[in-house]
Amino acid sequence: MCTDKSKFGSPDRRMASRNERGMALLLVLLTLLLLSAIGLGMLYMSDTETAVNSNYRDTQLAFFAMRAGLEETRDRMRSNSVAPLPLPTAMPGAANSILYIINQAGATDVVDPKDMASTYPDDEFCQEQFAGLTSGTLGVPCTMGQGPPSASVAAYVNSFSPNTNTAAALKYKWVRLTRKQNATIPNTKVDSSQADGTQVCFQTAANQEIPLSLIPGGPYASCDAAQTSGQDASPVYLVTSLAVTPQGSRRIGQYEVSGMSITPPPAALGLDGPAAIFSPRPSSNVWFANGNDTGVAGYTASGGTGTCTPSAIAQVPAVGTGDATGVTTIDTAIAQNPNRSANYTGAGGTPSVVNQGPTGTGQWGGQWSSPSQLDNLVNTLANAADVTYSCGIGAPCSPSGAVGTNANPQITYVSGDFNYGSTSGAGVLVVTGTLFLAGNASFNGLILVIGQGTVSESGGGNGNFNGTVFLAKTHSSIPPYPELATLDSPLISWNGGGGATVQYNSCWANVGNKLRYAVVAMREEMY
Question: Can you give the C-alpha Rg of the chain in angstroms?
């Protein structure tokens, strides 16, 4: 019997076939193992990336919450804020020199920054190097005994942000408000030649910080006192905010902020520059310019009774000029038949028209002394303005709405000529061209006509200007209207009669100093 061996193959071939199948299976298993490893690796990388992204989002949440605390405080420092803060008036160490805004997330979330054993202590305060207080090690959080002294804490003020005291509250826990001194920022004195504990002021015109001890005309008790005396000196405040998220992300940041120093020269009507022109003068017997301060007794205007706080009793000139020529010209105009000299009352006799410029300069002193400084002031106000109008020289525009109210004064900036008309307003009005007024125009605050330095009024009426009206010609009248090297003659022409009044009011004249707090510097604290 014969057997077909080719059908079944030889034993060697069958063995080889089994080996090949085994190798293939092994390769498949290795491939699956490799793919599984790659998949696990990708899954791990995905989880890691998700965790990194989650952590990043959480730290960003903390960062923007910290910024929210800084901005709430800066907003509430304004005099016209809906929830104004009682600003500290002294350096930490003195009573009522530290203010905290706290933002609890419900009743169980206790925020007590002065307690170093609490959940959210102010462990940054010792880094500020305030004179007479315990200082910490640079870059190391404060410990027991290095926190804010309890007697210095003026108050805890609740946040005004939405959902405060609920679980949905923003994640910043507290904001600290203090004044800055020369050595507050470690290793970075404002001026190394001055004492560490000297209060720091901000000069708006020069755009710089300066120790109080270097302010001209001193010594002064504070930046506020220097500002009240007419110096360019606004207090610098430190605003420090801590944010902590439920996941533990923590950010702490700090602003240096300052109000604008725009205390005007003392006069009801200020005409800065040489040979001021007041022609034609008001003809009515009931038109007055009065330099006797009404700020102390309060004030009433067409918009109702205002709320700002007066400074002190003062008597200033009804009209202040930059040189003796201006005085002579205006005195002559006022005395023309009929003689209205008695309608100009205030410091310096009757009529109260006084040369307030240093001898021979034809302009006033300080930040009001040159076109460049006055234009710097105008630019600062333009950047801080609530409402801006872009008009043209020779192409006046008119207000499209309110120019501020007693309850809500505002900064209004006009580039070019402005047809104010018979509008009423309050705050600070800046016009770089010609300001056109009608008989019933009224304004409470500071009017600055700086640029072309011209005011033109027409028509009778009973408008009232409470505060200060100031004119300065800093630019040429010829296109493209370049800045002048020295001030030229300002011009005010009053073609109407009526019972209008330009009344000096220290309260309204200085209202612009606290309408805005600008960020002078910003930093994030790392320790």
Answer: 35
Question: Does 348 lie in the same domain as 240?
Answer: no
Query: Do 392 and 453 reside in the same domain of the chain?
Result: yes
CA 435, CA 468: separation in Å to the nearest integer?
15
Amino acid at 134: T
456 falls within a domain? yes
Query: Do 398 and 354 fall within a single domain?
Result: yes
Neighbouring residues of 292: CB distance < 8 A, sequence distance ≥ 6: 315, 345, 346, 504
- Same domain flag for 317 and 201: no
Structural domain boundaries, residue 375 = 269-509
The dihedrals phi and psi of 453, each to the nearest 5 degrees, come to: 65, 45
Alpha helices in 176-269 (DSSP H): 223-228
Q: Which residues contact 456 (CB under 8 A, 6 or more apart)?
A: 434, 435, 436, 437, 492, 493, 495
Domain count for the chain, please give it: 2
Residue with tokens 């060697």: 12
Give me the chain's average pLDDT, please. Answer: 86
What is d(CA 306, CA 480) in angstroms, rounded to the nearest whole number?
Answer: 41
Contact 252, 59 (CB under 8 A): no
The residue that leads in pLDDT, 19 or 403, is: 403
pLDDT per residue over 462-520, tens digit each? 888 999 999 999 999 999 999 999 999 999 998 876 778 899 988 888 888 888 899 99
Asked if 175 and 239 count as a contact pair (C-beta separation under 8 A), the reply is yes
Residues linked to residue 92 through DSSP beta bridges, in sequence order:
94
Q: Count Cβ atoms below 10 Å from residue 336 Cβ, excluding itself.
A: 12
- Does residue 300 lie within any of the structural domains? yes
Alpha helices in 293-367 (DSSP H): 324-335
Count the alpha carbons within 13 Å of 378 in the hemisphere toward its beta carbon.
29
Q: Is residue 68 part of a domain?
A: no
Rounded-to-integer distance, Cα 265 and Cα 417, Å: 24
